[in-house]
Amino acid sequence: QVQLAESGGGLVQAGGSLRLSCVASGRTFNRDAMAWFREAPGKERAFVAGIWGGGVNRDYAVGLRDRFTISRDIAKDTLYLQMNNLKPEDTAVYYCAARDNMYVARTRASYDYWGQGTQVTVSS
């Protein structure tokens, strides 16, 4: 059974940092695209960042590239999201996603596998 398990969320003050992790089990996604999405209260789930199969090319939502960094450890089948200078508007549930394709997509429907999400709360 394929599973994606996120961790690393929590409560942090504005300006702080968090690193989210997502461990894949049941199969490897090293040659497939993976991504982070987030869902804030009352809003639709939105693309945050994605990384191509092989881990070289990356894509970010507008305005996040200077604060967030997506990376992956192929040996550990783990995806990361380093978030710096966090703001209250970053408060959301963050989801890890994977798809059976090496290219990153920005739409929710493009992804075949999802984690359960991890809560990130940024206080002002």
Give a structural overview.
This protein is an all-beta fold. A hairpin with a 6-residue loop joins strand 5 (46-51) and strand 6 (58-60). The protein is built from no helices and 11 strands. It has strands at 3-7, 10-13, 18-25, 34-39, 46-51, 58-60, 68-73, 78-83, 92-98, 113-114, 118-123.
Strand content: over 45%
Taking all residues together, what is the mean pLDDT? 96
Count of extended strands: 11
Give the SSE order as H and E letters: EEEEEEEEEEE
What tags apply to this protein structure?
mainly beta; seven-stranded mixed beta sheet; four-stranded antiparallel beta sheet; 11 strands; 124 residues
Short structural description:
It contains no helices and 11 strands.
Topology:
Layout: E1 3-7, E2 10-13, E3 18-25, E4 34-39, E5 46-51, E6 58-60, E7 68-73, E8 78-83, E9 92-98, E10 113-114, E11 118-123
Parallel strand pairs: 2-11
Antiparallel strand pairs: 1-3, 3-8, 4-5, 4-9, 5-6, 7-8, 9-10, 9-11
